[in-house]
TrEMBL record:
Cellular localisation: Cytoplasm
GO molecular function ontology, one term from the record: tryptophan-tRNA ligase activity
Pfam families: tRNA-synt_1b
Binding residues for ATP: T13, T14, T15, G21, N22, G158, R159, D160, L200, K207, M208, S209, K210, S211
Motif placement: 'HIGH' region: 14-22
Species for this entry: Sphaerotilus mobilis
GO biological process assignments: tryptophanyl-tRNA aminoacylation
Name of the protein this chain belongs to: Tryptophan--tRNA ligase
Subunit structure, as described in the record: Homodimer.
NCBIfam families: PRK12284.1 (NF008923), trpS (TIGR00233)
EC number: 6.1.1.2
Keywords: Aminoacyl-tRNA synthetase, ATP-binding, Cytoplasm, Ligase, Nucleotide-binding, Protein biosynthesis
Name of the gene encoding the protein in the UniProt record: trpS
Binding positions (L-tryptophan): D146
Function: Catalyzes the attachment of tryptophan to tRNA(Trp).
Length: 452
């Protein structure tokens, strides 16, 4: 899986309409980063994730269109980057299932989106899972599939998403370990939180966010809506002519996001010298418009031709699937979802990697009709390596299995097992098998402790 370039991937949940905060905090820096050399960027509309939060089809449809148009209008170069819809890549939900099968439920219990909802239910005296869907619960697994499907190295996200990237790393590691047979099927992704990208304040000075209802639209409603929103930015009550304190005001912070150093200094000087808030807001609108007006023109042209956006996204999906399909084929093979063949490949693999988990022998414990307890050790190829005698107690069988799993030759020779030619017992094979089990357990323990 060696790539010459670094793969950077991020998803945009398609609920809502893009606002200035999205542009400054996500769209603009992502597009700038995608122009760096040595970077291969993947940007996608996380519309399956949107379904978790929204059950209004019209809103889902509209939001996908607006967000796609916004990214394209802002200058995303779709020749250079891979820009697609999550829902156009069926390999992603398929991978989600493969990952779901190796994800610990306990870890999902701790995922913060689920935990917050569950805690709120408990606090309200409701059932812990009231109103919580499996979509919300499994959200981090779908997100892990988004990332691992393209073997992304870096994932730029907000702070609130770091936990999800760590979960993706964990599940990737577990999958590699279980099915990689020594290979790294998945790259372990790294969260990337941009420290210097300003989070834009909204009208009331808090972080600009749809959930605070304090946003300034990026394109929606045109220049008029922009002007009206800016007019509602909260300021203090100082009159024109009175000196203003520019630092820390929402108005100036938003201005800064669209200005160069000279313009920033000039705006501050004017405020200190008594520029009225009304006029300052007018200057802010002009400043924003300098960047946004040309984009808005492109945006409106795109929105008027959804078929063009559709074609762009389809082309993006084809590019994405050209990467996703071969990897998924490999993964299917790795977990055993293989073509049926006259000569099963399993026998070959046992030889190739006697120490890999795929080829490990397994203990089985069971009770016979006579009420006695047994255990046996079965090789990966189905051959019975150890067959125990009948024991009076299940716990006794369990104790022997534990000792044998430690790879202990003395225990092997003392164990109540059927030996001799008639039983087909092969001591060397049995010993090798239990030692392989013990070695793998030790390797897993070492890996777990090195992870802390
Ligand atoms: N959950 C992310 C958010 O709400 C969106 C997202 C979905 C994402 N899949 C992703 C981000 C994969 C990065 C990588 O912001």
């Amino acid at each position: 899986m060696a790539h010459l370039s670094t793969r950077v991937l991020t998803g945009i949940t398609t609920t809502g309409t893009p606002h200035l905060g999205n542009y400054v905090g996500a769209i603009r820096p992502a597009i700038a980063a995608s122009r760096e050399t040595g970077v291969e960027s993947f940007f996608f509309l996380a519309d399956y994730h949107a379904l978790i939060k929204c059950d209004d089809p019209a809103r889902i449809e509209r939001s996908r269109l607006e967000i796609a148009a916004a990214w394209l209008a802002a200058g995303l170069d779709v020749e250079r980057v891979t820009f697609y819809r999550q829902s156009d890549v069926p390999e992603i939900p398929e991978l989600t299932w493969l990952l779901t099968c190796v994800t610990a439920k306990g870890q999902m219990n701790r995922a913060h989106a689920y935990k917050a909802a569950a805690d709120a239910n408990v606090a309200a005296g409701e059932d812990v899972d009231a109103g919580i869907t499996m979509g919300l619960y499994s959200y981090p697994i779908l997100m892990a599939a988004d990332i691992l499907m393209f073997n992304a190295h870096r994932v730029p996200v907000g702070r609130d998403q770091i936990q999800h990237i760590e979960m993706a790393r964990d599940v990737a590691q577990r999958f590699n370990h279980l099915f990689g047979a020594g290979r790294e099927l998945f790259v372990l992704p790294q969260a990337e939180v941009e420290e210097d990208v300003a989070t834009l304040p909204g009208l009331d000075g808090r972080k600009m966010s749809k959930s605070y209802d304090n946003t300034i639209p990026l394109f929606d409603g045109g220049a008029k809506a922009l002007r009206e929103a800016v007019a509602r930015i909260v300021t203090d009550s100082r009159l024109p002519g009175e000196p203003k304190e520019p630092e820390g005001t929402a108005l100036v912070t938003i201005f800064d996001a669209f200005a160069d150093a000279t313009e920033r200094a000039a705006f501050r000087t004017a405020l200190v010298n008594g520029l009225g808030w009304g006029e300052a807001k007018q200057r802010l609108v002009e400043q924003i418009e300098r960047s946004v007006a040309p984009m808005r023109e492109r945006y409106e042209a795109l929105i008027a031709h959804p078929d063009r956006i559709e074609a762009t996204l389809q082309a993006g999906a084809a590019k994405a699937r050209a990467i996703a399909r071969p990897l998924l084929d490999e993964l299917r093979h790795a977990v055993g979802l293989r073509r049926m063949q006259a000569h099963p490949v399993a026998a070959v693999e046992v030889k190739a990697g006697a120490k890999t988990s795929a080829a490990l022998a397994q203990f089985k414990q069971y009770r016979e009709a006579d009420g006695r307890f047994h255990f046996k050790l079965v090789g990966a190829d189905g051959q019975v390596l150890i067959q125990s005698a009948g024991l009076a107690e299940g716990r006794e069988a369990g104790r022997w299995v534990q000792q044998l799993k430690a790879g202990d030759a003395t225990a092997l020779d003392a164990a109540p097992i059927e030996r001799g030619a008639a039983s087909g017992y092969d001591r060397a094979a049995a010993l090798a098998a239990i030692q392989a089990i013990a070695e793998q357990a030790a390797a897993q323990a070492a890996e777990a402790s090195s992870k802390g």
